[in-house]
Specification:
Layout: H1 3-17, E1 49-50, H2 53-63, E2 66-69, E3 90-92, E4 97-98, H3 109-123, E5 131-134, H4 140-151, E6 157-160, H5 163-167, E7 174-176, H6 180-183
Parallel strand pairs: 1-6, 2-4, 2-5, 5-6
Antiparallel strand pairs: 3-7
């Protein structure tokens, strides 16, 4: 006889505690996210502005931000016969710089230094230049990179959690290749 009132109270508490767009109420971690990069993310990013597709389109048109795509590289499909043709095509927001792996929560010191220098180059060293980080929906990589940029002192960091999937239905996308200076860095060794 007490089960129904207790269950109802628990449901009200869980609904009230959960962010509006997260079915599980994900909160921001203190540091960088260290787990799997694809999964529910928080609705916020302290020190950054969270933008939707409409706001992003306006930002791109009016302020010409630096667009940073952190999507992972495509992996060759398992079972592809030796010598089989494989032509991965990565699409992103036109004008983006694709920095695969830059959203890892555990970049080694060399990767962090390369990333810092590359973003400084892309922004012209202007800490007030708008920067947008994105990936795909439910991607911790773009959240991590946004947090890292805030920590580096960038003042106009925007996080687009809908990612390329949330933009491509109503906007053009472009085929992209990984950023050459970023891709030329030494191999990343996590945890160092």
């Amino acid at each position: 006889m007490y089960r129904l009132p207790i269950a109802a109270a628990a449901a009200v508490f869980l609904i009230a505690a959960a962010p509006a767009d997260s079915p599980v109420g994900v909160q921001e971690p203190e540091g960088y996210w260290q787990g799997a990069l694809h999964g529910y993310t928080p609705p916020t990013l302290k020190g950054a502005t969270v933008v939707d597709a409409v706001t992003l389109a306006k930002l791109v048109a009016e302020r010409k931000p630096v667009l940073l795509d952190v999507s992972d590289l495509d992996h060759k499909p398992a079972g592809l016969p030796p010598g089989g043709l494989w032509f991965p095509v990565h699409r992103n927001i036109p004008g983006s710089t694709w920095l695969p792996g830059s959203g890892d929560g555990d970049l080694d010191a060399a990767a962090q230094a390369t990333l810092k220098a590359r973003v400084a180059d892309l922004t012209g060293g202007d800490l007030y230049r708008p920067v947008v980080t994105y990936c795909h929906p439910d991607c911790w990589g773009s959240w991590n990179l946004g947090k890292r940029l805030v920590g580096l002192g960038y003042r106009q960091v925007h996080w687009f959690p809908q990612g390329i999937d949330g933009l491509q239905d109503g906007h053009d996308t472009a085929v992209s290749r990984p950023d050459k200076p970023w891709a030329a860095r030494p191999p990343v060794t996590a945890g160092q």
